[in-house]
């Protein structure tokens, strides 16, 4: 469904990503980890279509991903991206209105009624039916992310892009969100790409885990080389030593070597 062929991304002299090659089939759940600034969000933005490759190709169904976000792709960010002056229901109805090409964001009559009905249905699926008339400031962090997920799902996307969506949530709430996202992934038959800083979360949620890291590094010119996908693992095959190796590679000071034991097991 999605493939990258020798994909590179540069911002001026800063090589962010290099030599990315991958194939992802429909309905996979890819989790992505890597040190801060290594280009994970940039990669998601290329999948969304708001950034484009500097060279190489990124294809969806064999065609280059268009430079506009399309209804087949929805995204949820870590920062809550909802309209503060609208209720939960209005937020989702507004997301629906903005989906219509060439429209200013207003719906009238029958279209508005249908949108409200659809919005209420999707809000029930994400567990917010009791909060339709609340404003975002009256919601918890987890509830705000449920709302953002509802907005992203509204267009019935095939691909859901998640950029650390649970990074700001407490562990208990995160566990609830994990169950929600796994249920939605199955129910909506989604293909998911999710960035996380939490390796355990990556292994728990994904069918496949990618680690982004630099294959080559020049201390004199830190921007000369970009990150690639250094591990591409089917998640069912977790090995303690490998887990530790990846965990070590995600620490701020990357030594490249991991000779120590198996402390900090998942
Ligand atoms: N629009 C832009 N213009 C110039 N440089 C950019 C732009 N967007 C990102 N970058 C640079 O690209 C690099 C990768 O950024 P990106 O946000 O993709 O990293 P990340 O792996 O998602 O980081 P984090 O885990 O901290 O969120 C950084 O050096 C960043 O400064």
From TrEMBL:
PROSITE patterns: ABC_TRANSPORTER_1, ABC_TRANSPORTER_2. Keywords: ATP-binding, Nucleotide-binding, Transport. It holds the Pfam family ABC_tran. Gene3D superfamilies: P-loop containing nucleotide triphosphate hydrolases. The keyword Chaperone does not apply. The keyword Nucleotide-binding applies. Residues 2-239 form the ABC transporter domain. SUPFAM superfamilies: P-loop containing nucleoside triphosphate hydrolases (SSF52540). One of its GO terms (molecular function) is ATP binding. CDD domains: ABC_NrtD_SsuB_transporters. SMART domains: AAA (SM00382). InterPro entries: AAA+_ATPase, ABC_SmlMolc_Importer, ABC_transporter-like_ATP-bd, ABC_transporter-like_CS, P-loop_NTPase. It comes from the Bacteria. PANTHER family: BICARBONATE TRANSPORT ATP-BINDING PROTEIN CMPC, SPERMIDINE/PUTRESCINE IMPORT ATP-BINDING PROTEIN POTA. This is ABC transporter ATP-binding protein. It comes from Porticoccus litoralis.
């Amino acid at each position: 469904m999605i493939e990258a062929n020798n994909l590179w991304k540069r911002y001026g002299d800063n090589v962010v990503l290099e030599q990315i090659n991958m194939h992802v089939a429909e309905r996979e759940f890819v989790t992505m980890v890597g040190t801060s600034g290594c280009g994970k969000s940039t990669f998601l933005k290329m999948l969304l279509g708001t950034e484009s490759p500097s060279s190489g190709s990124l294809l969806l169904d064999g065609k280059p991903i268009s430079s506009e976000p399309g209804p087949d792709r929805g995204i949820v960010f870590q920062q809550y991206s909802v309209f503060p002056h609208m209720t939960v229901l209005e937020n989702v109805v507004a997301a629906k209105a903005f989906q219509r090409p060439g429209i200013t964001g207003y719906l009238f009559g029958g279209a508005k009624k249908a949108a409200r009905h659809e919005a209420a249905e999707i809000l029930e699926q994400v567990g917010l039916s009791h909060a339709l008339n609340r404003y975002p400031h009256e919601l918890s962090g987890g509830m705000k992310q449920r709302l953002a997920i509802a907005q992203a799902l509204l267009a019935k996307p095939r691909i859901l892009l998640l950029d650390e969506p649970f990074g700001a949530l407490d562990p208990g709430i995160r566990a609830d969100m994990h169950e929600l996202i796994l249920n939605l992934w199955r129910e909506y038959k989604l293909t998911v790409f999710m960035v996380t800083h939490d390796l355990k979360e990556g292994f728990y949620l994904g069918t496949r885990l990618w680690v982004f890291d630099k294959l080559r590094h020049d201390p004199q010119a830190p921007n000369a080389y970009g990150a690639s996908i250094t591990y591409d693992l089917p998640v069912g095959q977790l090995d303690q030593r490998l887990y530790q190796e990846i965990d070590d590679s995600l620490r701020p000071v990357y030594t490249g070597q991991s000779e120590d034991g198996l402390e900090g097991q998942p």
